[in-house]
Amino acid sequence: MNPRVWFKSISLENVRSFGTKQTIYFTENGKPDGKTARWNVILGDNGTGKTTVLKGLCMATGNYWNDSDALFFRRFSRESPQIECVADKDGGEVKLDKFWISYGAMRNGEYVHSANYSAGHKVKADLLLTAYGAARAATSLSPSLSQQQNNVQNLFIDGSPLLNPEQWLLNAELAAKQSDDKQNYYDRVKKSLEKLFEGEVIGIESKTNYYSTNVYFKTHYGEVRLHELSLGYKTLIAWMVDFAKGLFDRYPDSEDPLAEPAVCLVDEIDLHLHPKFQRTIIQFLTETFPNTQFIVTAHSPLIVQSAEDANIILLKREGDETRVVQGMEVHSWRIDQILSSDLFGGISTRPPETETKMQRRRALLLKDGRTEEEDKELAQLEEELGMLTASESEEALKALQLINKALPH
Q: Which residues cross the membrane (predicted)?
């Protein structure tokens, strides 16, 4: 049985937006002693460090390092950035060596950095870690599938090419024609691709004309090539097929490579996806890759609402540092409740003009000793807003104001 290695926590100190040490737990409900969570969704405003967390996981396990990653330093600080990870290996906790970057000598007026690169060796041999950045896309070229790419390179280098699904299938089909031993591999590749394309594609077939052999995807509107599919679907398929190929390579003797253990990091998993698919993507990936731990970032409340068993992680800016908030129960919330919560910075679900009028109405209701003109203005607002104000009476608003004043801050 192949060992399962998932992440249990990561601590970051003096890393980009993280100043004082912050720990994120990849466990059920974010509890330090909780069971390792399969789904972990990281939320936060732009610049709060969502992508930094994903990159930190790669670096702490010894999966990526180059000179440009000295940019991990916290701006205007000479304290060494430090990253610590704890993994869960088949139910047992494994604390990884600390990864840190230190200042070295001055060269041409600038500091030269070095890294303690012994990190991650305790689990690296057993851990299949793959990561995808927001600029992911399948290549339109036909690179050799024998060339091994770094599994996390796409997260660090924008535009780093991913596997072309057409090329993978054609290579497997060609190998099957040349050797009966490869037929089983081809059948599994095609079956896996059909599963990944399920929903928009009802069949996959290769056809040869006078000049070349191409793969055609059967849709409800006819046969199309990969580049003719919608952008959202291509963006999703690009990383899913690349990830599936990694599982095939890692577990060549498995009858179902997609069910083998792995960890997948995806930046902006909701990128270009239709709202309908945003609501089903987590369930689809859970069923397709049942033994994979997903750690993803998102900007969509639909992703949060659909993540029934997910560990929700909120990164908040406090002063000039990022703070981690976990343990939020939002599974039964409506979309408007999620949007107006701290998870998304209290965004109003009403049009800006309506929200401005609502705020003015609240201010007038809470004001003692309104003038005659202000009473007329309030009456006009009540008429314009109609039923939107039904749950916000003057008494209710003043009672809420008193409660807020009494709460500790």
A: none
Instruction: Of 138, 65, 158, 133, give the one whose Cα is nearest residue 297.
Output: 133
Whether 200 and 276 map to the same domain: the answer is: no
User: Is pLDDT above 80 for 378?
Assistant: yes
State how far the Cα of 39 lies from the Cα of 291, in Å rounded to an integer. Answer: 11
Of the ranges 60-69, 226-235, 297-306, which one carries the lowest mean pLDDT score?
60-69
Q: Is residue 80 part of a domain?
A: yes
- Backbone region of residue 110 per phi and psi (left: phi > 0; alpha: psi in -120 to 50; beta: other values): beta
Q: Which two tokens stand for residue 349?
A: 């679900």
For residues 154 and 298, give the distance between their C-alpha atoms in angstroms, rounded to a whole number. Answer: 17
- Separation CA 405–CA 402 (nearest Å): 5
Give bridge partners of residue 89 from the DSSP assignment: 5, 92
Statement to judge: residues 273 and 341 lie in one domain: yes
pTM for this predicted structure = 0.79
Total count of domains within the chain: 3
Range of the domain at 394: 352-406
- Mind listing the pLDDT tens digit for each residue in 118-159? 444 556 668 899 999 988 876 655 444 434 467 888 888 887
Give me the chain's average pLDDT, please: 78
Query: 244: which residues sit within 8 A by CB, 6+ positions away?
Result: 192, 193, 196, 257, 258
| Alpha helices per DSSP H over 183-230 | 183-196
Model pLDDT for residues 290-343, shown as the tens digit of each residue: 999 999 998 887 888 777 788 989 899 988 899 999 987 766 666 566 666 666
Which domain-ending residue is among 223, 257, 291? 257
**165 in a structural domain:** yes
